[in-house]
Each structure stands twice: as C-alpha cells, then as structure tokens.
Design a protein that fits this description.
Number of strands: 2
Strand content: 5-15%
GO molecular function, one term: gluconokinase activity
Shape: globular
Order of helices and strands: HHEHHEH
Pathway: Carbohydrate acid metabolism; D-gluconate degradation
Radius of gyration: 16 Å
Largest sheet: 2 strands, parallel
Number of domains: 2
Low-confidence stretches: 60-68
CATH superfamily of the largest domain: P-loop containing nucleotide triphosphate hydrolases
Catalytic activity: D-gluconate + ATP = 6-phospho-D-gluconate + ADP + H(+)
CATH topology of the largest domain: Rossmann fold
Number of helices: 5
Helix content: 40-55%
Distance between the termini: 35 Å
Keywords: ATP-binding, Kinase, Nucleotide-binding, Transferase
CATH class of the largest domain: Alpha Beta
EC number: 2.7.1.12
CATH architecture of the largest domain: 3-Layer(aba) Sandwich
Mean pLDDT: 85
C-alpha cells in the first residue's frame, strides 16, 4: 500500500492467517487480546476467527499442523463517510497509506452484519465516547 497499490486477497490471506495463529496462542494462554487491523471483508474476519479453514483459499502452512480452533471475536466497525475519513487521511503525515487508495478501501469494504459478532460506532464520536462504547459492550459479553 505504501507504493500506492491496494493489497489483494492473496497478499492479505497469509498475513491474516499469521494474525489468527498469534491470537489463538494468546487467547489459549488466558490473555485478553485487542487487535487493530483492517479486516474489510467478511472472509478476512472469518480467517481471524477460524484460521485458514474459514475460507476456500488456503494459506501456506509453515511446517506445522493447522489448528482448527475458533475463537470469539468482537468486531468494532468504525464507520464514517468517505469525506470525513478522506479529510482525516489528508491530515496525516508520514502514514503508509496514500490518500489515493481510500476509494479502493471503500469499494472493498463489506461491513459486518448478523450473525457476525460486531458493534458499529461512528467516527464522528470523539475517542473517549468510542472507547466507552467498546468497554460497555465488552462488559455485557
């Protein structure tokens, strides 16, 4: 993305599989985990919860047997208009994602929907309100 080229599924899937393995390890050890990443498609979120078996496309195995474990994931979908997000992106300095790729991200986006475990929060809220909403949701789970 830093070169101005949007990532495709083949680029993202191995990375997401690796994140799944890390999450699985940390959750299995009793840790509570917060992961911030762009999982724009439902398939990407399925990989995070189910690993490579969550999708038709398979990940490269790194010499170990794949675990078929699934974990609970709460997706926090921060939603905002193209105009608002574009304005914020233009104010960033030294960020890896060029503003020219934002449209491709909106085109790729598959917002979470039932039966996915998610909450949607507007980016028009301030950071304190966003955090409070997330924390309140976690307390109810």
């Amino acid at each position: 993305m830093g070169k101005g080229i949007p990532l495709n599924d083949q680029d993202r899937i191995p990375w997401l599989c690796n994140l799944h393995d890390i999450l699985l390890r940390d959750v299995a050890s009793g840790q509570h985990v917060v992961l911030a990443c762009s999982a724009l498609k439902k398939m990407y979120r399925d990989i995070l919860t189910q690993g490579k078996d969550g999708v038709a496309l398979k990940c490269e195995e790194s010499g170990k047997e794949a675990k078929q474990a699934e974990m609970q994931l709460l997706v926090v979908h921060l939603s905002g208009s193209f105009e608002v997000i574009s304005g914020r992106l233009l104010k960033r300095e030294g960020h890896f994602m060029p503003p020219e790729l934002l449209q491709s991200q909106f085109e790729t986006l598959e917002p979470p929907e039932a039966p996915e475990n998610f909450i949607q929060i507007s980016v028009d809220k301030n950071v304190s309100e966003i955090i409070a909403t997330i924390m309140e949701t976690l307390k109810m789970k």
